[in-house]
Amino acid sequence: MKNCDQFRELIEAYALGALDPHDRAALEAHLATGCPECAKAVEEARWLITQLAYTAPDAAPSDMLKGRLMQTVRAEAQSLGKPHVMPTKSAVPFWLWAAVAALLLFSIYSAWNTRHLQDEIRQANERAAALQAERQRIEVQLADLKRDAIMMDPASHKIALWGGEHAHPETLEAKWHSQLGVCIMGDKVPMPSANHVLQVWFIPKKEGAKPMPSAMVRPDASGKIMIYVSAPPDSMDNTKAIAITEEPAGGSGWPTMPILWSGNVT
Ligand SMILES: [Zn+2]
């Protein structure tokens, strides 16, 4: 007759449903005697497994692990020269069951944790994308509002950009607001050649200073342009003129083509 301590070693495996028939029968016979300590231990082990089952995304890992364990156990039994015999308690030491329980717990936990983390990462990415989209929307709105303010504020300095020797009949108009930046607009602007853009230049007053490259644009289908430069390279006082040339797409660091329009700032 086994004592309670010996049965205690079997209870985890019993609760997992992985105990061999001989030991199961012995344990069940002991439980039938109404031992309160062993009954409580079985209850606790079952509760733990129930908890594992609740936290597990699905039950597959436990069956898979149990199958793997039984293969291991059978292989051990065969290596001990006892083929086709279900392992007895001595062939399946408690540490093996403990290792299985730990592995099962870890497997279920990591599966749950991975899924949980993936879900959190996905949600965080969605929130970041939504914030990014919102920020872009606000930036566009802000640029529109600044542009409108430049157009309406009487404090904005008006600059007419005239066609040069390669004269375009249409004059472009620029408005420079000391705080809000520069707007340049025009209608019926001829389309630049393919892979070319219209590029804005700020020409400094300082003798010998190089033209400062700025915004690039292509007119819309109706020939309309609306260029907004929120941060001109220098102040109005230090700028002699605004000019526009046609440049290869991507713009140039130095004007490579004749000036199409220009206007003196002061
Ligand atoms: Zn007992």
What key attributes describe this structure?
binds zinc ion; 6 helices; 266 residues; 8-stranded antiparallel beta sheet; alpha+beta
Question: What would you note in describing this structure?
Answer:
The protein has 266 residues and is α+β, with helices and mostly antiparallel strands. 46% of the residues lie in helices and 21% in strands. Strands 5-4-7-8-1-2-3-6 form an eight-stranded antiparallel sheet, with helices on one face. Helix 5 runs antiparallel to helix 6. The longest helix has 59 residues. The radius of gyration is 40 Å and the shape is rod-shaped. It starts with a helix and ends with a strand. Bound molecules: zinc ion (ZN). The site of zinc ion has 6 residues, from helix 1 and helix 4.
Provide a brief overview of the structure.
With 266 residues, the chain is of the alpha+beta class. It has helices spanning 4-8, 11-16, 21-32, 36-55, 60-79, 94-152; strands spanning 157-163, 172-177, 181-186, 196-204, 212-217, 225-229, 239-248, 259-264. The chain has an 8-stranded antiparallel beta sheet with strand order 5-4-7-8-1-2-3-6, with helices on one face.
List the helices and strands and how they pair.
Elements: H1 4-8, H2 11-16, H3 21-32, H4 36-55, H5 60-79, H6 94-152, E1 157-163, E2 172-177, E3 181-186, E4 196-204, E5 212-217, E6 225-229, E7 239-248, E8 259-264
Antiparallel strand pairs: 1-2, 1-8, 2-3, 3-6, 4-5, 4-7, 7-8
Helix pairs in contact: 5-6
The chain binds zinc ion.
Average pLDDT confidence is: 82
Largest sheet: 8 strands, antiparallel
Q: State the strand order across the main sheet.
A: 5-4-7-8-1-2-3-6
Overall 3D form: rod-shaped
Rg from alpha-carbon coordinates: 40 Å
Category from helices, strands and their pairing: alpha+beta
What are the secondary-structure elements, in order, as H or E? HHHHHHEEEEEEEE
Quaternary organisation? single chain
| Small ligands present | zinc ion
- What is the number of helices? 6
Low-confidence segments, ≥5 residues, pLDDT <50? Answer: 55-61, 82-90
Distance between the termini: 110 Å
Strand proportion: 15-25%
Helix content: 40-55%
How many E strands?
8
